UniProtKB/TrEMBL annotation:
Residues 125-149 are annotated as: Disordered. The lineage of its organism: Bacteria, Bacillati, Actinomycetota, Actinomycetes, Pseudonocardiales. It comes from the Bacteria. This is Outer membrane lipoprotein-sorting protein. The keyword Lipoprotein applies.
């Protein structure tokens, strides 16, 4: 039935990669969908309301990501950051803000553990551990919110500028689900065509999120291949570095990046589908202060806002200005230019 209605190293390069990934993706969470189970009818308004009102659930699962964003290779950024291709990870959540993420790599595994007060990052390949104390309002770039919370955030932000519909039912990771579809309202200046979310029929947890651009294939497909709901072992949300592993104490405000004293805080210009994130690229300090050469990225552009380079992807664009600003969104470069003028 159908009814209307976000880096550990790399300085400026890592910051640009993060800005692109965060601003151009509209979610974290797709899985394998199959049969169409018989579920009670629900209106789009009822389904959206139930998603936003549902309590986060404790769960464990395997997340699969198919990334076709088309982000360029950023000099100085980790080779496996934001590149196109498929990947998997294991996730655990206690439903109360504590979580664990395990990302396999050819040379080992990266593990991220958030216990509510501290986030740990451990790389088994180079045997290094980083301890990052949490702060009020802090959202870690890697563990962040769990997938279900991230998808709820997306639905909440886009619903006011979308045509919302329920496009039947599906089955994801063996669980019956409703298919929620958000399409940009007329007048929204975005390169994205629609977002489709599979919503678990019982828990109202988003199990699947597919982002469609101008082409036939999704630009991002990420989510649960398998998932189990229920209480998790508390030991999953604690971390003790292995013997002999050095620990770096890292404050999010003193990680080798600095902003000029008068640098404005990042701001969002607009809302919904054509929202643009505008900020200042942090400088790199210390012995690793040499900046990578980004002059080969994108194409030269200029306007009333100044001059710089525009980078386009399958899900939007970014402008890196010559005076150190960056703007990114799921829009064309001209929309970014307008935002930079404000």
């Amino acid at each position: 039935m159908t009814s209307g209605s976000r880096l550990r190293r790399g300085g400026i390069a890592a910051a640009l990669a993060a800005a692109l990934a965060v601003a151009l993706t509209v979610g974290f969470v797709t899985a394998r969908a199959s049969a169409a189970p018989d579920l009670p009818p629900v209106t789009p308004e009822e389904l959206v309301a139930s998603v936003l009102e549902a309590e986060p659930a404790a769960l464990a699962g395997t997340v699969a990501v198919d990334n076709r964003l088309g982000l360029p290779a950023i000099p100085g950024a980790p080779a496996d950051s934001f590149t196109d291709g498929t990947s998997t990870a294991r996730v655990w959540s206690d439903g109360e803000g504590r979580g664990r993420l395990a990302v396999p790599r050819p040379d080992g595994e990266r593990t991220y553990v958030r216990d509510g007060t501290v986030t740990w990052a451990y790389d088994s390949a180079d045997r290094t551990a980083t301890r990052i104390p949490s702060r009020d309002g802090d959202r870690d770039e890697r563990t962040g919110q769990d997938p279900q919370a991230a998808a709820r955030d997306i639905v909440g932000k886009l619903r006011g500028t979308s045509v919302v519909a329920v496009d039947g039912t599906t089955e994801v990771a063996g669980r019956p689900a409703y298919t929620l579809v958000l399409t940009p309202q007329p007048g929204e200046r975005t390169v994205l065509r629609e977002v489709r979310a599979a919503i678990d029929a019982q828990t109202r947890t988003p199990l699947e999120l597919t982002v469609l651009g101008e082409g036939a294939e999704p630009v991002l497909r990420a989510g649960f291949d398998e998932v189990t709901f229920g209480p998790q072992d508390p030991s999953l949300f604690t971390f003790t570095p292995p013997p002999g592993v050095p620990v770096e104490e890292k404050d999010a405000r003193a990680d080798g990046h600095r902003k000029p004293a008068d640098a404005p805080r990042p701001q969002v210009v607009g809302d919904g589908w054509d929202a643009v994130v505008v900020g200042t690229v942090p400088e790199r300090t210390g012995d690793a202060g040499q900046q990578p050469d980004l002059s080969a990225l994108g194409t030269p552009v200029s306007g009333a806002w100044g001059s710089g380079r525009a980078i386009t992807t399958n899900a939007g664009s970014a402008i890196l200005t010559d005076d150190g600003r960056v703007a990114a969104g799921a829009v064309e470069p001209d929309v970014l230019g307008t935002a930079l003028e404000r």
